[in-house]
Design brief:
Blueprint: H1 8-11, E1 15-16, E2 19-26, H2 32-46, E3 50-56, H3 59-72, E4 78-82, H4 86-91, E5 95-96, H5 99-104, H6 115-119, E6 122-123, E7 126-127, E8 130-131, E9 137-142, H7 143-148, H8 160-172, H9 184-197, H10 215-229, H11 241-247, E10 253-257, H12 261-265, E11 272-275, E12 286-287, E13 291-296, H13 303-318, H14 320-324, H15 333-336, H16 339-342, H17 345-351, E14 357-358, H18 366-381, H19 387-409
Parallel strand pairs: 2-3, 2-4, 12-14
Antiparallel strand pairs: 1-2, 4-13, 5-13, 6-7, 8-13, 9-10, 9-11
């Protein structure tokens, strides 16, 4: 949804009188679009000398449009992208280093809730992103289903043993408690979470070889496959059926993204809770991602526009509490420790995972290789190959992809 057109005749000219008009692009076309639009409106009211015109596109369209805009000299002044998209766009010179902006705003690692989110905006030793939020996987649970099965609806399981004991209890009552899907949402995210919990990694530190077919990877995918084989999950679960089943009382647990919070709030009469993903493996870990501010490359540098863009980023960052209502968790410690955020019950549960949220490696073109992870999960969950076979074949393909991308983007 394009919220406003990009009038480069005004934005390129810098100031119109005493007003600078900035162009801001993002991919917030879902429920979070309402929140970002309100924040931009509030900024425009608060800063009459700087006005922001926002365009929101589907994420996949955003990157295609950004490439064309940069090449033609029509790039937006500020944009937002996911942390795992930063390396590719930096390698393509579509965004520029933002170290000076971070220093000018006095941003330091110690102010953030997670080392990973602060370092997530760095590619090849240079900062390209300033964190806005994190949005991890977590566990939703149906309190009514647990109560009906004679279980404590206010004490969700935290360990692997506790989790399996509850699933077994539910199975005895005819309830398949955890539905496993073969899709990105949320099968792949669950696999990555479990891989890290069992001590594995997706790729080697240099991003030259896939390693998700390790013993840890096999244990992770086997755990998921066994839920189907042993009857804790139905087979061939369709996209989002696990989430819908939670709402309909057909399952008890759903590992899903924090972005589902507001949807559950709108379900009449649903008794639900949120909690961190249980520690199934040997250590705490959970999949997550982050939206970060970036500066697209311009054909010419205008100091006044740079200062205006910095003002906008700072203003938005300082008002992240309003943004968190769109179902995100804070990246700044000051916000995470505030009474206002702690009163956001479900979001606070997801935020308990902040210190051990994990991102894919900062490697250009990594999204191409991650498709192979998704393929392995699908093959395993659907029973088309054993976990070992599915992971081995996918890892070999993923290694070819990352090696090709090293040549494409430079080692």
């Amino acid at each position: 949804m394009a919220l406003d057109g990009c009038d480069r005749s005004s934005t390129r000219s810098g100031a119109q009188g005493n007003v600078i008009t900035l162009s801001f692009w993002n991919g917030f076309t879902g429920g979070d679009g309402t929140y970002i639009r309100k924040l931009v409106d509030d900024f425009n009211k608060a800063t009459p000398h700087i006005q922001v015109r926002m365009n929101a596109y589907m994420w996949i369209d955003l990157f295609q449009k950004l490439a064309g805009a940069v090449i033609s000299g029509q790039a937006p002044d500020v944009a937002v992208m996911h942390v795992d998209d930063i390396p590719t766009n930096a390698a393509r010179s579509l965004i520029t280093p933002i170290d000076e902006v971070a220093r000018a705003l006095g941003l330091e690692a110690s102010a953030y809730t997670s080392r990973v989110v602060w370092e997530g905006g760095v590619y090849r030793g240079k900062r390209y992103g300033i964190p806005l939020d994190m949005h991890p996987l977590g566990m939703f649970y149906n309190k009514a289903v647990l109560r009906k099965a004679g279980l404590n609806p206010d004490k969700p399981p935290r360990t692997g043993d506790e989790y399996m004991a509850v699933l077994e209890e539910l199975k005895g009552k005819g309830i398949q408690g955890h539905w496993v899907t073969p899709f990105l949402f949320t099968g792949r995210f669950q696999f990555e979470t479990l891989l890290w919990q069992f001590g594995g990694e997706l790729f080697d530190p240099e991003g030259t070889r896939a390693t998700f077919d390790s013993e840890a990877g096999v244990r992770a995918l086997t755990w998921m496959v066994d839920l189907v084989k042993k009857g804790y999950s139905p087979a061939n679960v369709s996209q989002d059926a696990d989430y819908i089943a939670l709402q309909n009382g057909r399952n008890a647990f759903n590992w899903n993204g924090i972005w589902q919070i507001n949807g559950l709030k709108d379900v009449p009469g649903l008794e639900w809770g949120a909690a961190p993903v249980p520690r199934i493996g040997t250590q705490d870990a959970v999949w997550g991602n982050s939206h970060q501010f970036v500066l697209p490359r311009q054909h010419s540098v205008d100091p006044a526009r740079q200062e205006a863009a910095r003002t906008f980023i700072q203003w938005m960052s300082q008002r992240s509490l309003e943004w968190l209502k769109s179902a995100k968790i804070p990246v700044l410690k000051s916000v995470a420790e505030s009474a206002e955020f702690k009163s956001m019950e479900a979001e606070s549960q997801f935020a308990r995972q902040s210190e051990y949220i994990r991102f894919p490696p900062a490697v250009a073109g990594i999204a191409d290789a991650m498709l192979m992870v998704e393929k392995a999960v699908s093959q395993g969950v659907l029973g088309r190959a054993s976990p070992e076979e599915a992971l081995k074949a996918a890892a070999a393909q993923a290694t070819q992809v990352v090696q090709h991308n090293r040549k494409k983007y430079g080692a």
